Amino acid sequence: MESLITLVNKLQRACTALGDHGEESALPTLWDSLPAIAVVGGQSSGKSSVLESIVGKDFLPRGSGIVTRRPLVLQLHKIDEGREYAEFMHLPRKKFTDFALVRKEIQDETDRETGRTKQISPVPIHLSIYSPNVVNLTLIDLPGLTKVAVEGQPDSIVQDIENMVRSYIEKPNCIILAISPANQDLATSDAIKIAREVDPKGERTFGVLTKIDLMDKGTDAVDILEGRAFRLQFPWIGVVNRSQADINKSVDMIAARRREREYFANTPEYRHLTHRMGSEHLGKMLSKHLEQVIKSRIPGIQSLINKTIAELEGELNRLGKPIAADAGGKLYAIMEISRIFDQIYKEHLDGVRPGGEKIYNVFDNQFPAALKRLQFDKHLSMENVRKLITEADGYQPHLIAPEQGYRRLIESCLVSIRGPAEAAVDAVHAILKELVHKAINETVELKQYPSLRVEVGNAAFDSLDRMREESKKATLKLVDMECSYLTVDFFRKLPQDVEKGGNPTHSIFDRYNDSYLRRIGSTVLAYVNMVCSTLRNSIPKSIVYCQVREAKRSLLDHFFTELGSKEVKQLSSLLDEDPAVMERRASLAKRLELYRSAQAEIDAVAWAK
Question: Distance between CA atoms of 449 and 4, rounded to whole angstroms?
């Protein structure tokens, strides 16, 4: 059982070392889930004397006004033999065997946190005392409740102290040790008043009555100690502390404990209660109760730790890794994040992620539909055919077939294909840009660095713009090639067609009749449709080769080339993470370290058992 108190001691020390003091924050707190005994009392209630009696050493600061200005987490460790000594968590590996120096260090450490003012601070001081004369126990000594601010203190000090005390004792895992002096009316006790507010049924409160030996003659505290005056779940415990004269004379604690036992044994009113009175009984009873509470809470603490570790790891993963300090580390981080984006982009094109199918839709629907919408019939109307044929003949009419007229008619039709070809290039370009936006939004790492996000996006868009221009040139070249060189085999079939439908040796006067011109128009239309069918297959190939394939191969090549020439400042500017995110990550990492160490400590105790 003793190992359980030791376990909680370790966890409390880890909490303080890693900044978990149980105060309200945006981070999960382990401190609040750990069972603890908080010592509460008004000024001059004998609170310090009770603690010193339990420890058996004179080590706490004394004086008028508010002496305890920071919570003191007092961890007592029973050792089998050897010299008593004390250790502070903020001074590791330094052992104090002179307890007068312990008192001075408490004062000095308080001043380091609060300054030499009379302000208070919620940051606890951790003090461990190792002695054969103590029980395994942890107590938290809180600032004494007061009703009036003294000189040098703000008016809010009264409320500030109450708020600090309340923040500890209102938590369900806190055991309240309420110190009240017997020579004052219990109804006015600061400790009982605040304990009753947070624990109205008295299920977590232990009442300690001090200064019993200083009560007026003819009065006693039997009604309180027997629970008739104010009932609590646990029996009241009376103690007799050293008087101020004893303190001034440095009366030994061992002697003081002996005199305390003698007082209860020899005073008729309290003789029947002797077995459960005194500071020694108080220490043993608190130790036993704390062990029982810890044992009952361990499963819940384990569950909380495991759940919180998963939550902290999840949030840290979402926030991403911290930024490297050196230029090489920064460059590597930028390259890695950019490659992640590039891979996501390729997955969209390859069908692993949605979006790439829109490009096929351009080739299979939009581009063919645009070709069909071309009004070749206007180009090949009777009037236009007659006009172009006669213009091509010039002053000397053609002899057999109007070759120049054919060429002009075909060229005027094929030039109009340039529009749908350019539109197909632009449509694919728009889809590729849309996929850049999608890939950027899906690259979690880029959300961490707004400037890098913009830079990667701009670099990708610039590359796509260059690819579009190359694609337009290549695609329009395909159209221009069809205009530049006609397929001869197609026209070699014309004489056969003529033999089927007419005589190629018409007189010059009937070569421009409607039937002849209509035959020319239908021949040109057949040729243009053949070319459209060819381009419908070759233009998508050109677009894929110049845009889609290049986007997969070299979307960020230019960006990577420029990165190599950037200086540290420029690289740092790309990794301009939000300071709030950096602070949050550091806090989460610290808190995760706490929970993992807590998990390891609990597991070690479980394995040992």
Answer: 45
